[in-house]
């Protein structure tokens, strides 16, 4: 192994920081020179959210690198962890807004999306600060503390890939697969960083590689997306009249969104328990 690769493998926080900066620079260049991206419309807003994600990743790993250097006391460690989790929420909100706008397509509602995401971010920050400062003592309490962040992080990261898949089908499959793998690899990092404080350098190295793969597979899927019609449950089943009629019933309309959220939470928790227990990051 070359000295550079050895250094990168043993300084996974800095490696992620450099990869995030590289991806941000590449995204800015594409935004500046690709007319299909920089023109007005929902794709421009989605790409701005994509840029914001990499800015969020840079902030996350700057904070993580500072924590690694200052060797904080137990009390200050808690506040550094709170700051780190609040930084994670910023990246998550950019991802959530990007996926949401991608689903809305040409009928995008920028103001509503940004206000909703902004309010959600404030709520998450309040939760992170107050619960983290007052109650996050034991591993079980810290598990509860990071639960909203972990659920939303995985959901938001997958939302954009699912929206691209629904628009672009086969071209977006690699991005969907890589994004799912990346979101899954985040779960042990959450546990090792916030719940059971332990070394997660191998997982961070995997995430650095994952960031490169995510960016590499995003651009073909995004730049070749042709359709701009809004994606809704009704639009997905428009060729199946009986199912479409069933989805329009008042009862189904009331339970559809809560039901999808419940299924997403159950799926995330099953994946988390499987991955975390498999690699020994459980909170027991």
Number of strands: 0
CATH class: Mainly Alpha
Largest sheet: none
Question: Which strand-content bin applies to the residues?
Answer: under 5%
Overall number of structural domains: 1
CATH topology group: Rhopdopsin 7-helix transmembrane proteins
Shape: globular
Q: What structural category do the secondary elements indicate?
A: mainly alpha
Polypeptide structure, described:
- This protein has helices spanning 3-10, 12-33, 35-38, 42-70, 74-104, 110-134, 139-168, 173-195, 201-223, 233-236, 241-247, 250-278.
- With 284 residues, the protein is an all-alpha fold.
- It has a single domain, classed as Up-down Bundle (Rhopdopsin 7-helix transmembrane proteins).
- It is globular and about 60 Å long.
- The mean pLDDT is 83.
């Amino acid at each position: 192994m070359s000295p550079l690769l050895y250094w990168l493998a043993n300084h996974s926080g800095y490696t992620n920081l450099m990869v995030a900066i590289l991806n941000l620079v590449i995204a800015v260049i594409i935004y500046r020179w690709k007319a299909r991206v920089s023109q007005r419309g929902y794709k421009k807003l989605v790409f701005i959210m994509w840029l914001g994600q990499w800015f969020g990743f840079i902030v996350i790993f700057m904070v993580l690198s500072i924590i690694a250097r200052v060797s904080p006391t137990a009390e200050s460690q808690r506040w550094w962890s709170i700051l780190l989790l609040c930084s994670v929420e910023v990246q998550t909100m950019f991802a959530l807004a990007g996926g949401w706008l991608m689903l809305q397509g040409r009928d995008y509602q920028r103001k509503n999306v940004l206000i909703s995401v902004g309010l959600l971010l404030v709520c998450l920050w309040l939760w992170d600060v107050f619960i983290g400062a007052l109650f996050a003592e034991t591993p079980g309490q810290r598990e509860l503390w990071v639960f909203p962040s972990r659920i939303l992080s995985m959901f938001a990261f997958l939302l954009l890939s699912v929206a691209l898949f629904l628009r672009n089908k086969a071209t977006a499959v690699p991005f969907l697969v890589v994004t799912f793998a990346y979101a899954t690899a985040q779960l042990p990092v959450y546990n090792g960083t916030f719940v059971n404080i332990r070394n997660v350098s191998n997982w961070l190295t995997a995430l650095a590689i994952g960031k490169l793969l995510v960016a590499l597979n995003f651009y073909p899927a995004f730049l070749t997306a042709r359709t701009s019609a809004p994606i809704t449950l009704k639009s997905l089943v428009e060729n199946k009249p009986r199912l479409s009629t069933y989805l329009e019933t008042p009862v189904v309309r009331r339970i559809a969104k809560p039901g999808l959220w419940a299924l997403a939470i159950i799926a995330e928790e099953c994946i988390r328990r499987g991955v975390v227990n498999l690699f020994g990051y459980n909170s027991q």
